[in-house]
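Let us practice reading a record.
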Amino acid sequence: MASLMAVKSARHALIKPLRLVGFRPMTILSKESAEEYKKLNYTTRMKDTGRPVSPHVTIYSFPITAISSITNRATGCALSLGCAGLGFVELFGGSGTALFLMQWIGSQGWLVATGAKFGVAFPLVYHYLGALRHFSWDYQPERLTNEQVEKSSYLLFGSSLAISGVLLFV
């Protein structure tokens, strides 16, 4: 009991000077109001306040640099999942299963084989060229301007599509 009183008095001694300079302790919701707050979603809470809800992300068009960054992350994830999936097939299907799977996909006709080739080629080329772009920025930071990044994003998409298109015929 004495230690509890000591903690309360120490807390009071620390808080009181803060109140003098304009600080106040953090507001704590009651259990009832916290439960009520959890029940309401963002839109409902904003309607209750009378303030407008912010427009959704789909209204805005992303700049090419954001699309380029998102695509680089997505291609990295796709490459990781593809490699893990191929390893999983080979590990649990036995030796040669991955080769059989690739031959089977190739024998399904031109459209399926071409789509599969592009599905592998584009992420590989895009992610590799994106890495080269980042290495160039690391060693030449003066090229990291808004205009240069935008131009390099268009160049990255165009060259990745062109190289991937050429790889379809290999």
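A brief commentary: The CA atoms of residues 126 and 157 lie 7 Å apart.
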